[in-house]
Amino acid sequence: MGRQMTEMLKGTLEGIILAILALQPAYGYEITARLRDEGFAEIAEGTVYALLVRIEQRGLVDVERVPSEKGPPRKVYSLNAAGREQLDEFWRTWSFLAARITQLHDHIETRGERP
Amino acid sequence: MGRQMTEMLKGTLEGIILAILALQPAYGYEITARLRDEGFAEIAEGTVYALLVRIEQRGLVDVERVPSEKGPPRKVYSLNAAGREQLDEFWRTWSFLAARITQLHDHIETRGERP
DNA sequence: ACTACTACATAGTATCGCTGACTACCGCGA
DNA sequence: TCGCGGTAGTCAGCGATACTATGTAGTAGT
């Protein structure tokens, strides 16, 4: 993936996954598929699993093992109260950042960088 | 600063500074002040200087030493062609990411996470 | 038996921003 | 005269993150 996107995902990818879990509980493999549907095509499986381990250890999700029809049992993650709180903070932080950056972008467009 | 914001700035702070330099050339100390004006109050000076070293090493800026009336000489950075190219890519990446995340946010709001 | 898909896990790497300290120059007021 | 505050830049060490690459297994279809 591009260096730019890789760095920009830091901090946001966690929020993105929390947001996906907020829509409905899901397991790792499913989340990677969901990410592809949402347009994040280039995010590797390993990345998602590592992140799920982290958010589980932080206690942001509840986990349930569910036998799968195909392959090994699934670890289904669902957002708990702490996770929803964290997601809220993610949106707050994101909104702040997005607002500032949009503002910067407008500054450049109006003041005209390249004539 | 908050962990969340710290992580989210990764990758974007560089773009933000390139954007500021696109408005007009500036030196380090001035940039930290500009950041404060733009709403990024909590960004440490050391962070800005370190970032400037990086973008200089990547050849995204031209540097000119200008004597200051107060204190040591200033290093005035101005965006060069490579820097503008990088800034363009920043905007592209940012737009992509912002669009996906906004879309995710809308999904949650319309489908209703909490009844 | 072989292949493909599903499903999860982990070790190692690179990058990034933060903290905290330090050097150095200037002008002003006590 | 001395110290203080503002200006200006530098650096080492740290923690967190996402990526790459690889490995482990179970099931289904041929």
The CATH topology of chain A is what?
Arc Repressor Mutant, subunit A
Number of domains of chain A: 1
Note the gap between the termini of chain A.
33 Å
Which class do the helix and strand fractions of chain A yield? alpha+beta
CATH-assigned homologous superfamily of chain A:
Winged helix-like DNA-binding domain superfamily/Winged helix DNA-binding domain
Describe this structure as you would to a colleague.
The structure is a homodimer of 115-residue chains. With 115 residues, chain A is an alpha+beta fold. Chain A has a single domain, classed as Winged helix-like DNA-binding domain superfamily/Winged helix DNA-binding domain (Arc Repressor Mutant, subunit A, Orthogonal Bundle). Helix content of chain A is 63%, strand content 12%. Chain A is built from 5 helices and 3 strands; from the N terminus they run ααβααββα. Chain A has helices at 3-9, 12-23, 28-37, 45-57, 81-111; strands at 26-27, 61-66, 74-79. In chain A, helix 2 (12-23) crosses helix 5 and helix 3 crosses helix 4 (45-57). Chains A and B meet through helix 1, helix 2 and helix 5 of A and helix 1, helix 2 and helix 5 of B. The structure holds a DNA duplex (30 and 30 nucleotides).
What descriptive keywords fit this protein?
63% helix; 5 helices; alpha+beta; DNA-binding; 115 residues; three-stranded antiparallel sheet; 3 strands; Arc Repressor Mutant, subunit A; homodimer
